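Ticket reopened. Same input as before:
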Amino acid sequence: MARVAPSPAGIAVRAVGLALCALLAGPGCRTLRISPAPPVTSADWVTEGDAPARHGSAAGRLTPPLQEAWVYNAHAGFGTASPLIWQHVVFVATRKGEVHAIDRMTGKKRGTKAFGDAIEGSPVLHDHVLYVPSAWGGRAVTAYDVRTGTTRWRIDGPPVEAGLLVVDGRLIVADVTGAVRAFDAASGQGLWERPPDDGRSGIFATPLAVEGHVLVADDRGHAVLLEAATGAVRWTHRLPAPVYRTPVTDGRRIFVPTTRGRFVALDARDGRPLWTHTEPDTTVRFTAPAYRDGAVFVGTSDGRLLRLAAATGEVRWEAPAGESLVATPLPAEDVVYVGGMDRRLYALDTRTGERVWSVELEGRVKSPMAARDGFLVVLAEPRFVYAFTTATTYAVVDP
Amino acid sequence: MFSSRSPVLAVLMLALALPAYGQYGFHFGRNKIQYEDFDWHILKTEHFDIYYYPEMQALAEHGAHFAEEAYEELKSKFNFALNHRVPIIFYSSNIHFKQTNITPGFIPDGVGGFFEFLKGRVVIPANGNIHRFRRVIRHEMVHVFTYAKVLRELRDHRVAPDRFLPLWFTEGLAEYWSGEPDYQHEMVLRDALYSNWLVPLENIYRIAGTYQMYKQGEALCRFISERYGEEKLLQLMENLYKTRDFNEVMELTLREDFLDIADAWDAWLKARYYPELEELELPTRLAQGISVQGFNSKPAYYAFRDGRRRVYFMGNRTGYTNVYQVELDSTLAPVGEPEVLIHGERTDRFEAFHLFESRISISRDGRLAFVTKSGEQDVIHVYDLEADELGPTYRFEGLIAVYSPTWSPDGTRLAFASIDRSGFADLYVYDTETGLTQRLTADSYDDRDPSWSPDGTRIAFASDRTALGHGDAYNLFTYDLTTGQIRYVTYGDHHDFSPRWSPDGNYLLFTSARRDSTGRFGGQNIWVADMRDAVDPPPVVASADLLPLDSPPTAGVVTRPLRQLTNLTTVAYDPVWAGPDAIVFTSFEGMRFTIRRLADVDSLMAFPKRREQVRLAGAGPHWSFERLGSEDGAERAPYRRKYNLDVAQGQVGQNPFWGTTGGAAVVFSDMLGNDYWYATLYNTAESRDDFLRSLNVAVSRVQLQRRANIAYGAYRFGGRRYDITDPDAPRTFPVFWETVYGGYGAVSYPISMFRRIELTTSLSWSDKEVPFRQIDRQALLLSNALSLVHDNALYGMNGPVDGWRTNLTVGYTTDVLYSNVSYVSAMADVRHYWRLGRYLTLASWVLGRINSGREARLWVLGGSWDLRGHRLFSIRGTKMWFTSHELRFPILTAPSAFIPVLAPFGIANLRGALFFDAAHAWNEGYDVRESQLLTGETRGAAGLGFRINLFGGFVLRYDLGYRFSDGFRQRSDLFRQFFFGWDF
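Engineering reply: fixed in the latest deploy. New output:
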């Protein structure tokens, strides 16, 4: 039988058909399974700010100049979710609702999993379970076992735009209705719930752990310290402005950024205000702060990075950086890193604020960073994950 | 993203803005003329490329500072920074702004600026008021940030940017974040509440694009900020990815039911404004109406020698702005309806009036001075009221915009405010006898509203040169014509405008808008200043150098008594004395600007609403805004044309007859929109062998920067064609093969806004093959055409309703190589629109077309756009005449009178048309019939049609009637035809 050459139209139809098949099959192939799965240790950066206290400080040296190790295309932008570093894997959550697992050595994709329509707040990795908040799409939180690639449990409910907190085996979830709920991290069983104060407040700042307690701050300026075990209110304080970014604590003090030119330090014991740093321009917003060695580092929306004395609130230095700052700074041993809305990553001397290094990125930096052992992960617009290493010290041992 | 200076002009904007594309490819349309050859330069600041011309460098440097200032503020408000440079194009006056090619449409008065999405350009004119200039820059910068942020949010979430914030939100936010609410904002909101026309939140889409929407949107954003927190304004943008329905976005963000939000806003407004109502007077209750229909402003009063009294004013009752007159009786009550004295906006001489910006003045001997735009600048016309004839027109070298002329008492000189190419407003005096113009002020202050004192020694005017002017205050001053000294008349953090001397020179009438105890502006009221100065206040400007004194003399405190005559709910504008005991003024109420008479002024003076002694000494020093120039680090460079991609579009189609077709088109243009390159590539090949034969490619360049617009290009068209106008093509299915390549050139020269000459020429090689008729013809075709186009038609929602337009064209096409083709073309197309009533128009259209000679092309007719009841283009002939007449009448006009954009939503402006059409086409002989072409017989139609405009630009048409043929001897059954398109 004679073989008939396909017409151009026929070729086009086949190509479209194949493309459709690929599109339909693509999402179904997506999974997130890390095997073998090394243990999660304290050396990993598995929650926003590295620890439930959210200090956000890099352990080990991270001395500039840094070198770009790889760039990964996550195919969507990033919210205020922090990347997570777990041994040889980097997890990144996108505003498209996906979590990407990236090989830390090579920058290659190890897996992708969709969790609802958008992720704004930081996921947390605890005992090989990745807890992912969903900002839209019906789900609230998904507990996903990264060893088996299966969903352990899921909670539906109001969107969660704040990051998650795991403290003493309890998962703390604060949602956009202002409700705070605690679940057994292993089973998903509800432990306690604190209903919203009123019908209109929402929580967008990630809760943090303060000596066995949980601090939540909402968009109407209410700061509440709750017993982690029971949800009982230890104290409340009305802040002078809404809170949209994650506070940080040194154990004794809680440093709270607001949206209206006020940065407040509260006494962790009773919520009493210790000091307030006030900007003359009340439209200035603060980034989430970071804490290291008695100093608080915080950026401002008008493009300044401040180092404040944790004890007094005194401004030790302020330095221009980044045109406008939205992302949390990340202090290391001698320098503090901050990504700007001017598409640059800066390193400033922690003692003087002097700029010691910077590098241009593809887009703005709006998300927190994560760092481990001379390895820094930066999320930049429009959809890129950057990995930087120190020039000499980087090494990863694959277990 | 337009922002408006004047509320009514913004309201009218949609109605008056006509398509400007008439010069290019369409028969009709008015002309947007580039009178000026701007020498563009660029000032590069940290975040902006400021485009300006050297004459306005100082203003551009102020603008650069304002832009950077706004940027610094907005990056915190938006929690965002731009990562691209923003091009801002400044013009020094509205008249220059009207010439911009960055938007193809016409720009009416009152548009403060716009932001366009294609290249992200911000375009802003100055109008003499530097505060306004600063505010508009901030307004447009809010748009730039909003657009960039929303787009970023959508892209971050991988949501297609096929949604955007509603206009009320973007414009409201831009107003809210560009400064404190001004007195016009308060004026509109008070009126909305007191006159009960506030559009609820759930229906706010109905006023999209109007000034009301701007102000209601601003109030909504303020309400959201106060009730829910300013941060929620940003969250509304950030949550747009979740749903297209902005009402739902509001519910998600504000965490309240949408209707509850709407109710809360309504209650919030009422709580702010209702408590004041008890103290206030409605203009309609206080003052008798003299002209209350349409938009009316800028009244002037004149008592004739024979005892007649009239009020003259600018008005827009029909869509055109005219000067009107209305007779008054002895009690100053109107006698009859206002009549048009000067027909405006239809002729080159009175091309456009400044309806709300320029006062008119009448001399003691009855000569009316008024301003119109005429060509590249404003001019002052004089009309002799006693003789009832038009007098001279005064044009001033170097002065672009002219406002508010006022006669000297002896009637020989005119004082006026004007903006030159620098963009700053100053005062001038023109001597009509010597022809000399004297400049009285020369600085960056906004000097306006001059009024000559009855003794001829002083000119009162309003200005922001007050020591409080840095905060946007306007006070009144006098200019001493003997010494050149300027003195305060009023002083305070107010908006004092529109001074007018009393006939005896003892008082100065003016309007003043002041903040009340809440800090908000109250109504703008009529005040009187007592000018019987015992002691002159100290001068604030010396005569020698026109420089402000740093510290005015303070020896002895001088005070002036002021009296507030009204306490209005809204606003009074431009009061003038009408005899010794009456005042005529413009009032705003119920979204209408009306002319009213305030009687018993003596008693109002005796028992004013409020008395005040204003202290005039001790006024502060000179002020100015900062500038950002090259000495501050900005770089300056001449503009060099660079082309960026505007549009790239591809298309693939599949058709059983044509097979697979595909192509792409790209458009490039420069930053100023003066120079366009168009490129098209298209292929209709059915097989690989036909690929080259069916390749269509065209490249064109259109240059708009000069008065004469030029286009030229080259093309190659080939393949199978369907052409019903080709005389050699089969009649029933006119398909043949043709390859054409060549070039063309076109020049369009506007004589005025309403008339132009068009010349086109082309030279092309044509190889035509008509297989069914065994024709294989080659020709080198030279084609030339010359057209004269006139168009002053006024558009309603469905098409023209007034004015007339015509297109006269002659052309010649010949084969210069083989003489295979040689024919002449002539066409006369005349359309006239008689306004029989406010909403009633009789439209008539007469058309004649001839193509005569070898291979003359066929003209076509038929379809809903011309000969109704017949199939589209079913009548074809080398010669034809056609006539159509329509009586266009309203069926539903409802609130569209002052909220015209209700119409797009289908609930208003349903119109009808009684029509009669007739046509006759022929080829060889007038009566020779060709059934396939429907020639040789007079055909026609008569019936009734309905029209409705959707979304402001898409007109649906439904006609039913009888079709006639055979010289109207035969009538068909009733036909029904549904189509789209504007009325002819």
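Confidence is low (pLDDT under 50) at residues 1-25, 542-555, 896-904 of chain B. The longest helix of chain B spans residues 130-156. Please confirm and we'll close it.
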